[in-house]
Amino acid sequence: MKALDHDMAPNAVLVPLGVLELNRGPVAIQQPWFLFGHSRDTSDFIADGIDRWWEERKAVHAGVKRLHVELDNGPEVASSRTQFMTRMVGFADRHQVTVELVYLPPYHSKYNPVERCWGVLERHWNGALLSSVADVLRWAGSMTWRGLRPLDGELVGTYERGVRLTKAAFRPIAEQLTRSPTLPKWSVTIRPKVPGD
């Protein structure tokens, strides 16, 4: 089979999203979960991905009322991004969980465990011809991370860049955000509204 060293006209462009569940209970588990989107890496794509992950995995984590989410410092998930914060407040309210968003400083992705997991995937499919979406999903699902195969899927949808709220529209959302007094940009806690309040 012939292949070019660069894809000049790809059949599809996929946007990756990864969640690495770190369960530090009596038996430490690090379950990788990958999602590949067909549109753009936006706040809405990431929020939809996190929502889909929790819908698929919350039964495994029955009784969990607080999620600690470590994020890179990408512009789509920044704590100043009104659309992402709005979506995460909606997530917390809908699922009745407290969400703690903790951001890694720029150029510190090496400390993010999911980045190491992505590195394993890159080595796993190195040299493979990823000529279709099915190939990408098959290769992603066949790697192993600490003895576990990732759970993976795709998200078909169109996402627009630049979605943001006005200051007035964001004000009620901001009321549910508790920023760290010492690191307000890097640590944000979202407490859900109790139904009926």
Describe this structure as you would to a colleague.
With 197 residues, the protein is α/β, with parallel strands linked by helices. It has one domain. It is built from five helices and seven strands, in the order ββαβαβααβαββ. The protein has helices spanning 43-57, 82-95, 113-124, 133-142, 167-174; strands at residues 15-23, 29-37, 66-71, 98-103, 151-155, 177-179, 187-190. The strands form two sheets. The protein has a four-stranded mixed beta sheet, with helices on one face. A three-stranded mixed beta sheet has the order 1-2-5, with helices on both faces. α2 (82-95) links the parallel β3 (66-71) and β4 (98-103). α1 (43-57) runs parallel beside α2. The radius of gyration is 18 Å and the shape is globular. The termini are far apart.
Keywords:
197 residues; alpha/beta; 4-stranded mixed beta sheet
Residues in helices, as a percent range:
25-40%
Tell me the number of structural domains.
Answer: 1
Q: How large is the count of helical segments? A: 5
Query: What fraction of residues sit in β-strands?
Result: 15-25%
Instruction: Note poorly predicted spans.
Output: none
In round numbers, the mean pLDDT is: 90
Strand order of the largest sheet: 3-4-7-6
* Assembly state: single chain
Layout of secondary structure:
Layout (H helix, E strand, L loop, with lengths): L14 E9 L5 E9 L5 H15 L8 E6 L10 H14 L2 E6 L9 H12 L8 H10 L8 E5 L11 H8 L2 E3 L7 E4 L7
Parallel strand pairs: 2-5, 3-4
Antiparallel strand pairs: 1-2, 4-7, 6-7
